[in-house]
Amino acid sequence: MGKTVICPGSFDPVTYGHIDIITRAAKMFDHVIVGVFVNMEKKPNFDIDERIGFLRRTVGHLPNVEIVGFDGLLADYAKERGATAVVKGLRAVSDFEYEFQMALTNRKLNPDLDTVFLTSDAQYTYLSSSIVKNVASFGGDIRNFVPECIHDEIFERLNTKGKH
Ligand code: ADP
């Protein structure tokens, strides 16, 4: 039986950092489920269909990657889908504390569930969806942060400069 893992996130929107982690996971495991949080604490800038659409256009060509929206507990969803590990990206030490807490919580809820941490390419370690949102909201260039095929849609939505 092949190894199935899950890469959870809000992907609001997907960045080169996420793409790097998903691509690495796809090389290591047989089946990678990219699980997009349907309900988020903070209202997302892009709705669930848009976030899934951006992922399809950027990592949808990888044959062992499946992109789905999911709701509820990650530990339950992983069990339901037969995933044995959660794959997360670690940027800096600042990510560690929260991720460590989540990993242990998920294992408590589902003892069979491990968490694997990957590091992205050094050129993306500073990158997050919030950076993309901040820069674009002031009309800044986000071409180094998101792929060309989704750039215009993201930039036009987020760029509020001159829209008032
Ligand atoms: P963000 O923190 O960018 O809003 P998400 O909540 O969608 O992203 O995160 C999904 C996963 O992707 C998390 O494990 C996060 O650590 C990882 N990730 C996001 N950007 C990067 C990056 N630049 N390098 C490594 N991992 C990343």
Structure commentary:
- The chain is of the alpha/beta class.
- α5 packs across α6.
- A 5-stranded parallel sheet has the order 3-2-1-4-5, with helices on both faces.
- The chain is built from 6 helices and 5 strands.
- It is globular and about 50 Å long.
- The protein has helices at about 15-30, 50-60, 75-80, 95-110, 130-135, 150-160; strands at about 5-10, 30-35, 65-70, 85-90, 115-120.
- The protein has a single domain, classed as Rossmann fold, CATH 3.40.50.620.
- The protein binds adenosine-5'-diphosphate.
Task: Draw up the topology in text.
Blueprint: E1 4-9, H1 16-28, E2 31-37, H2 48-59, E3 65-70, H3 74-81, E4 85-90, H4 93-109, E5 114-119, H5 129-137, H6 148-158
Parallel strand pairs: 1-2, 1-4, 2-3, 4-5
Number of domains: 1
CATH topology: Rossmann fold
Radius of gyration: 16 Å
Fraction in helix = 40-55%
Provide a count of the helices. 6
Question: What small molecules are bound in this structure?
Answer: adenosine-5'-diphosphate
Strand content: 15-25%
CATH structural architecture: 3-Layer(aba) Sandwich
CATH superfamily: HUPs
- State the total count of DSSP E strands: 5
Cα distance spanning the termini: 56 Å
Helix and strand run: EHEHEHEHEHH
Q: What is the approximate shape? A: globular
Average predicted confidence as pLDDT: 95
Strands side by side in the biggest sheet: 3-2-1-4-5
Low-pLDDT runs: none
- Write down the CATH class: Alpha Beta
Largest sheet: 5 strands, parallel
Which structural class fits the helix and strand makeup? alpha/beta
